[in-house]
Amino acid sequence: MSYNVLVVDDSRVIRAVIKKTLDLAGVEIQELHEAQNGKEALAILKEKHVDLVFSDIHMPEMNGLEMIEQMAADGNLRNIPVIVVSSEGSKERVGELMEKGARAYIRKPFTPELVRDLVRETMEASDG
Amino acid sequence: MAKDPIQIMAETLTTVLEDMTFTFIDSPEEELQTDDTEFLHATITFDGPSSGELSIAAPRNLCAQLAAGILGLEADEHEVAENISDTLGELLNVTCGNFTTAMFGDETVINQSIPVVKKLDKTAWQALQVRPGAVKFIVDDVPLIAHVAVEESR
Questions:
Q1: Which residue of A9, B77, B143, B152 lies most exposed, with the fewest beta carbons within 10 A?
Q2: Using CB atoms, which residue from A20, A86, A93 is nearest to B109?
Q3: What is the pTM of this model?
Q4: How far, in Å, CA of B119 to CA of A91, rounded?
Q5: pLDDT in tens, A25-64
Q6: How far is A47 from chain B (nearest CA, A)?
Q7: What is the ipTM of this complex?
């Protein structure tokens, strides 16, 4: 199974880390799109077919939380799973993200194994 | 304070460097030696029930090597030069998130600043080594200094 993935982060370095980890995890990628913030991500989501989104929280112009809220409010986007990628570990912050519509949370740094399992679980739950 | 911030900083940064840059890390006791003359110093602060500051400093060549590794490019490529500061800042950003969770637990909300990266000369680099709260590392045979300062809970 191969996926169209969108990676949203204002740091090119972190986008590269996510891409490399997906590769090492053996996740098959059909097309990989990149956005520097939530605003750019929403524009891509409206134009392209995306199966899965990896998104940072803190970004300029539109942060990850606002992006998730806008996706949840859009009938065409609300079913696209978003995995939030952050170094924050507070239960309160993670709880808030899941409440707003994030499907999963992964904390940096992450291993390819963790990413592989999370992608599988998230996509299986999404298909179900 | 029950937990040792220096120990937690050492463990956290080691994990972050190994997992994000796939480098080999050692923690030497002796003074760090290098022929490098250009260094970068990234600093981040955190605030919540406790506050403090973390920093990492390394020769620019090591920062370029780390950036190249992450981006999958050669260290002398133009795109690497553009991302050297971002690399050091992001490594510190991730370290700070994991450090604060390890120090204060996941029930505590801690706010982090945006990392600030500045150039450092050799004299300032050498002074960092003897600063209280400093932790020394060797990353793929190149020295790196981390520093941690935590204020007591309010």
A1: B152
A2: A93
A3: 0.89
A4: 36
A5: 999 999 999 999 999 999 999 999 999 999 999 899 999 9
A6: 27
A7: 0.82
